[in-house]
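Is flavin mononucleotide placement plausible here? Inputs below.
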Amino acid sequence: MKSLVVYYSFEGDTKFIGDAIAKELEADVLELTLVKEVKSKDYMKTYLGEKQVLMKTEPLLKLYDKKPQDYDLIIIGTPVWSGTFAPALRTFFRLEEIKGKNIAFFYCFTVKAGRVSRRMKKRLRRNDFIGDIGFKDPLKGDKDIALKRVERWVAGLKEYLTDK
Ligand SMILES: Cc1cc2nc3c(=O)[nH]c(=O)nc-3n(C[C@H](O)[C@H](O)[C@H](O)COP(=O)(O)O)c2cc1C
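Reply from A.M.:
I modeled the complex. Tokens:
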């Protein structure tokens, strides 16, 4: 089964988890990056990011060379921004018609994951949703524990797909 891990990461947590999932799954990786990244790393970053969520902004993505249509399993990762997925994913979902795929999500958050999973499922409802998992600021916590959770989660997905 051809697998792709797609993620956007602002400060590295989602990248850390996404790359670990890809390694476990032997999947290709597509990291979404913005033409104009929010530069500010102080308190303004949250304000600017939340404003993008509120305005339903679709920031321009840098060109990428992977096509989700070429894969059977797509794992999608995002930081939680204002209780939902980051605006980069909004752009990606508009650009790519994703349907009839096995889809799983992962997300990184600090306090509250909110509606992120529900929103993702709704946005990708024409697919077979096979799992989701959240990680609380993995780079600030025990990375080994996070990696163990990745291992178990991926093993579960593989088992499910084998039995399917
Ligand atoms: C604009 C913005 C909005 C955020 N909103 C939330 C939120 O609603 N709930 C939450 O638990 N964390 C929120 N966070 C924290 C991030 O989800 C968290 O730090 C995550 O691990 C960052 O992932 P990254 O390093 O891949 O960017 C927000 C962070 C930013 C920058």
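Short version: Strands lie at 3-8, 28-32, 73-81, 84-85, 102-109, 128-136.
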